[in-house]
Amino acid sequence: MKKFIETISNIWKIEELRQRIIITLGLLLVYRFGAQVVLPGIDTTQLGALAAGTDSGILGLLNAFTGGAFANASVFALGIMPYISASIVVQLMGIAIPYLQKLQKEGESGRKTINQITRWLTIGICIVQAPAYLYGLEVGFGVPPSAFVKGMGLDFIIPSVIILVTGCVFAMWLGEKITDKGIGNGISLLIMIGIIATMPQAFVQEFISRTTENTGGIMFILIEVIIWFLVILASVLLVMAVRQIPVQYARRTASGGYEKNVMGSRQYIPLKLNASGVMPIIFAQAIMFAPALIGKSLDHTEIGQWMNVQFQDPFGLAYNILFAILIIIFTYFYTAITVPTNKMADDLKRSGGFIPGIRPGKETGDYLDKIMSLITLPGSVFLALLAVLPAVVVKLMDVQGNWALFYGGTSLLIMVGVAIDTVQQVNSYLLNRHYDGLMKTGKNRKVA
Q1: Taking the CB of residue 87, how many other CB atoms lie within 10 A of it?
Q2: What pTM did the predictor assign?
Q3: Is 247 helix (H, G, I), strand (E, B) or coil?
């Protein structure tokens, strides 16, 4: 505890870090305030059906990503997810479109152009999603017509679409400002803070259910919390696990040549066990909408009725088996497009490095590709197990669906990944400050 207090004190002493933390907290507070502002023309007292429909399942996950704004019919109801979708689309298009490939190689200027394309695509996605959300309020989510003060006419639809699109763009701007002026990872922090915001309510509902319905009481709550901490520990291991590939760098001689001997510096290439992060889960969840839609279209047949029943339940057996298989497939796919082993081999060769026992160039690329394939298998299986764990705890421990979402899947991995990145960002400031302090007090340091 003393060490923790000392670390907090050191963080507060660094003026730049202190300002960045204050700016970050202020912008996050603005985002959380906006999540409570309901769209004009909606009676907030009649949104009970919407809140009940987003307690669990896929809608519960969407509501968690928006920090409850989805269930509140808030101006931030679309959250930051349209920007995430646009980023994924642009990243995938970069594989096939030469223009985007060229921009990716142009450094900072190319990155700015890609960001601008992503922003415009985000607006396009919002223009499609906003009317669908408003239409779904009455048709799909059970909000009574009386909740719309002036009805669902164009005088309500058009202003509401503009507000929802503006809310998403403003959330995107907040995330970029946190990245530039705050402690970084702005978009990820917005998602994480939204997920954390729904956690207390989910836990309170689970606590009330256990204590009032005689389904385990305080002891079972304690067991759930212990299991939850163990799952978090497993998630941290998954996020941080790497396979270190030893690399030998040649020593530069006085004549300008290279000596490839044991005197050269040895380093490592860290290949992450889960290089794709949470993207395979996001891809798989997007695909999992398809079986239910197909089942509805074939509702007059036996197979259609079976699909409609099985794939409407996100905690069902058939749903989670297919979900796990898709996650494993997408983990290999996303790792293949985001980890350029051939480029890594070329860069290593140009810098005078080599893997002991492996020839530079193509053989190095093939070796790295083989290692990635081997470590991706356990990583993908582990990721799939974490993704289906909420369904397991619902079936085996009778945990409520909204609390079960925090036992794995996208929510938990995002919280763990962003928390680790944020701690590393703060730690880098502390290390830099410590280094500057040593230089200032060094006896050989000269003052001009």
Answers
A1: 16
A2: 0.77
A3: strand
